[in-house]
Amino acid sequence: MSYDIEQLARLLSLLQPAPPGWVEAAQDLPRLRAGIDRLVALAEEDVEVRTRVVADLERALA
Amino acid sequence: MQPAAGETDAELVARCRAGDGEAWNALVDRFSRFVFAICVRGFRLSEADAEDVFQDVFAKTFEQLPALRDNGAIRPWIAQLTRRACIDRLRASRETPVAEMEDTAADSLAEIDQALDIQLALGALPEACGEILDRFFARDETYRTIGEELGLPPGTIASRISRCLEKLKAVMEDPAAPDRPVIG
After folding, report:
1. Most CB within 10 Å of its CB: which of A1, B16, B113, B152?
2. Which residues of B are less than 8 Å from A29 in CB distance?
3. Is B133 close to A12, i.e. CB distance below 8 A?
4. Nearest CA in chain A to B52
């Protein structure tokens, strides 16, 4: 494919950088997702602990 | 950040799928301008809508990457994700006739795809050519700023740009040119 200089210049100007904050937010996705996964795991663990404690208390009172 | 020299889309996606965090950063770098251009040039979204679509596209890319059948198909896949997200956004706003905008966008999208090829080719240029062309045409920097940033006399920038465009033309017209790295 052949290109002329004006066409190359115009095509170069089409891809301007996205705002840096947008790019950083997108690059941060894996870390955010890992954080959410950790929170979900902790919440699930918390439910298990609570359930176990309540069951122990109920057994103690029975 | 720049991906490893000569790394293809397929290689980059393979590294992402293997859990390489640096590869994800490089993937976002490689396609961020492409997604941004589809939003603001192709579909003329407002800045707020474009930001929502931009984040949505990369969130979907991150979530759905493990299901991608062909690592090398990432570029058309991201283009399609972005196009659909833009159309959904326009439908929700009901301010612009969507069919009309799709027709207008089709030509722009072909050009934006071609522009990504050109941007990828910048990485194959010698010396500071890629950076000079990117700063002048894509970042709208003045001769003075480019000169200061790159330690070059401002009076030489115009001639350097001209020479670099000729080199870019040669790279683009070389049928044996390999896949090229991208300027971030």
Report:
1. B16
2. 24, 58-59, 62
3. yes
4. A22
Asked if B33 lies within 8 A of A16 by C-beta distance, the reply is yes
- Residue A50 in tokens: 């609570």
pLDDT tens figures, B85-129: 999 998 887 666 777 777 778 778 999 999 999 998 998 888 689
Kindly determine whether residue B173 and residue A12, on different chains, have CB atoms separated by under 8 Å.
no
CATH 1.10.1740.10 assigned to domain B1-112? The reply is: yes
List every span in chain B annotated with CATH 1.10.10.
123-178
Taking residues B28-39, report their average pLDDT: 96
- Where helices occur in chain A by DSSP H, the ranges are 5-14, 20-27, 29-61
Average pLDDT over residues B8-24: 92
Fold of the B123-178 domain: Arc Repressor Mutant, subunit A (1.10.10)
- The chain B residue lying nearest A17, using CA atoms, is B33
Polymer length in residues for chain A: 62
